[in-house]
Batch of 4 targets.
Target 1
Amino acid sequence: MDNPQQEYASRLESRKKAVDDHLKKERSFGFARLFSFLLGLLLLFLTLAQFDFPAWLILAPFAVFVVLLVLHDRMIRERRGLEQAVLYYEMELARVNHTWMGKGFNGSQFEPDKHPYAVDLDLFGKASLFEYLCRAKTPTGQRKLANWLVAKSEIEVLSRRQEAVHELSPNLDFQESLAQGVTDPTVFRDPEYFEAWMGMAPIPFGGYEKSIAYFLSLLSGITLVVWFGTTWGGLPFLASCILSGTYFSYLGGRVIRVLSSVEKISEGLNSYASLLERVETETFLSEPLVDLKKKLETDGTPASEEIRKLAKWVKKLEDGNRNVILFPFARLMFWSTHLAMAIEGWRERNGEAVLGWIDTLAEFETLSSLAAHAYSNPDNVFPEFEPKEAILEGVSLGHPLMDRKTCVRNSIRLTQETPLVIISGSNMSGKSTYMRTVGTNTVLALIGATVHASQFRVSPFRIAASIQIRDSLQEGISKFYQEILRVREMIDLSHEEGPLLFFIDEIFQGTNSHDRRIAAQSIMKKLVREGAMGLISTHDLALTQIAENLLPPGKNFHFEDRMEGDKMIFDYTMKEGVIEKGNALNLLRSIGLEVEDESAT
């Protein structure tokens, strides 16, 4: 089995060296460019000073300059790709070494309002599951991963994702190539606009309008040659300019609309093309990846070339309108008009297909993220799916976001015969973390990812959780009322098709013990009766009796602590049965707050 830490470190060192080598070559190319340009100027100056040099000798340094310019530009692009590879492997090492928190893209903008488990299981935001998983560079790839995390998928879909992830996991070159494809993630300034632009109503240009534009371009060129090459003077050229200006005033509004519409999409096109090219040139073996790649097939030109063609036209259009020197000639030769017509024709032919290409690319990015997650965690396993009966069974579960060195593993088993686990325990003993461990691994399983366990079997659950409930000052709702609203949502979800998996931390903590016991027992009976299963935690030992009163019965487990001198020790290991004592008094005493137990006197 590969050691991901060693492999990442080796690749990181190799890419850093490659960056240094490129920088040295770039400096050499820079000096060579400068020398060739100055040499050309010198020969030109000497020629003007009556020295007789052949034309080829004067032009040769400028030709060398142009060649070096092209090669230098290519080398800079390669170096920027290598720099992205360096950043990629630095982040992979950070994940392996558990120093990744706050360094990646956290996806906080994707957190849905009032979602039944996104906040409770820390799916989005700093140090979230999304930040830990996401390697996608495109906004559509990032959104695809977010959607997978919060939506339910069928077992057939999950099995195909697992197969794809299994193939991609050892393919570090492909994962790296997707990272290199975007040298500057800020180029995707407005992804929603990009999608909207592809689906915008066409800006029509008739066939005869294109023919007239080509004729006037040719006429302008001919009359310009006539002006400088004959004795006819500039009147033909002036007449041509008047005709061209009149015709542009007729077309100009539409041309300007095209120009303004492409301003927001121009920067990201080459990045999309590079990423698509990486997918197109990769050979896949598994059926899911082969089928996915087929979605990029076109009748002739590859998707990457089509987008790169659009990128070139957009750049030429912008250059013709922004460059002060080129602008008069661009206007005279209908440069902007021809390009605007070409861009609109491209959008009419490919607009709908492009959205499919970008969505396919997003799925490859998301699968690659899950594959990198699998490779970085070789002790993880692919879960088994149980389509017939509701079951959740995990052996040696650990929280995927915790440091492997300190993570304590526990197991879980929920079946139709034992649908409820009640967890009692002292403060800070690990109850909430355990619930998040089970919930987060279940989310991973249900997106097609590997889980942090030695074995894991799960049904296609819908999930609901009440672990991280807060007061809402804006809505004027208390924490307790927020909790009962979430429980109401769980009851409603339990009526829908498919099993529900629920997590309730410190159930009904905001009310007295008498009301809490009655309410909790009633709610658990309703949920279990509808086929739901889940975990609840409590400090109230009276609630542990609920397990015995259910049909089918639940099961009690607990976390505990022990005192060693003045120090409180937690082993974070779940044990069967009900906790026998609390630790609130010991916690107070451990920080110097002496309390007297008057009931003992």
Target 2
Amino acid sequence: MESCFDFAQCRKNGFKVYVYPQQKGEKIAESYQNVLAAIEGSRFYTSDPGQACLFVLSLDTLDRDQLSPQYVHNLRSKVQSLHLWNNGRNHLIFNLYSGTWPDYTEDVGFDIGQAMLAKASISTENFRPNFDVSIPLFSKDHPRTGGEKGFLRFNTIPPLRKYMLVFKGKRYLTGIGSDTRNALYHVHNGEDVVLLTTCKHGKDWQKHKDSRCDRDNTEYEK
């Protein structure tokens, strides 16, 4: 993957991230607006593409389910028309959903070229180690920040925090993601690793109910 990323600008200017200007008439869902705002509000942001080490599209790529109202049409041609695209080199693409019901796939609907993919629920077969980024599937209602602006200057090692890992979500008793989520209880210890799941997903969840569902639902709803 070394040939897919040009480190020259990073060595020259440091780790700077450029966000493409929003194109007139293009819709951007609130979730993706929050992603872009977080980047633009960080110390790594630059408004000068000539200083950038990493590029992020303003075109909304989070939801690539064709049945979704947030789905952006003609994304392939829109991306290819960007003069800085360069076949995706030094670009990072964010994606939460891809494919559509009932046959969900990991196809985002356009050629990402040499771009890195920051994606939720990415399979081990398609994940490219040391290149792609696995991200959590977050709700559109999830707050963008935890309150007041932080003033982190240095990373603390070991980190000063109570929890090492926290997850709360639906189990998906069958289908894509079910094997992983149904096994989360193995690493849950209720102390620094807290993984809470509910079986209540979809209309037919009770038909697929397993022996852990009642216990998991109770813990989830506390």
Target 3
Amino acid sequence: MTITDPIPRSPARPAAAPDSAPETRLTAAQRVLAILEVFDQDHLVLTLSEISRRSGLSLSTTHRLVGELRQWGALERSEDGRYAIGMRVLELGALEPQGLRLRNVALPFLGDLHAAVAADVTLSVRDGNDVVYVESLRSRRGAPVLTRLGGRWPLHATGTGQVLLAHSPTEFQDAILRGPLERFTPKTIVEPSELRRILAEVRRSGYSVVEESITAGAVAIAVPVRGPRDRIVAAVGVTIRKGSCTPESVLPPLSMTARAISRGLGAPSSRGRG
């Protein structure tokens, strides 16, 4: 997963076009991509009509391409007839060179952390204005949150996102703070001055604690992962149920995991540290 400059969120797609409309000017690849792009964090599962409307493709074209994508494994069909991104797409995304090395180094340590804290564990990177989960280990006792592999959220709204934002260039932070900052719950931080203060505290303390920013009853704790030249390349997070334990009790194994991953990636500051 590459780190890119700030990009605006995709605008809402136009209504479905008739068969003779401009979709005929699209290449076959563009039509396939138009279908895949309609899925996002707010639209994980869609009906055929919804895919057609959001992609701007006719219903007949959508029906044909969705069938082909489902046969290949790019889309999956649920029992109620709706569609979601399939595992083949997620598997391909995991093969991105930088993300693949990060996951290969991190996975054994993430597994140990998952066993130690008995909670949801995530490994995240920044992609544009979002945080993206490149690894996610769920727990039966974890908080009911959406942390699926490949899922993404705005940086300001998650623990790992705040860590990555806090260590991003000042110009990038300023662009995010200019907003708009999306609110998911009453506790989502959407005031620029408050978020700026929190990011400064994250840099000072070395970790982030985010309570019920996206899901009621969930508390996220996150720390940075460093790569060569000690640059922040990812963040490791643990999500617990509010009241199940304190964030401070999770920090020691979480920090140890981040240092181990950083050491595996060649971070100079992690050498010789446990």
Target 4
Amino acid sequence: MVLYLALCNLYLKDAGNMPLAQIMTWHKELGLPSFDSMGRTRRKLQEKYPELLGSVRMQKIRAAGEKAYRRYAKES
């Protein structure tokens, strides 16, 4: 979210003062990129530049969380 806020502030002055729901709902009208678009770009950059990934510890924590979520999704 912090990355998206920084990006929104580059496109729109005082975006940080707007409610998040308003930004997410009106991002096209405000001329802002979508949250999904920003996420895809971040993932592509991390794939190309692995040094931008989190620490090994954080990668393990995220992987464990993803594994737990997949297990939960299969059970539901």
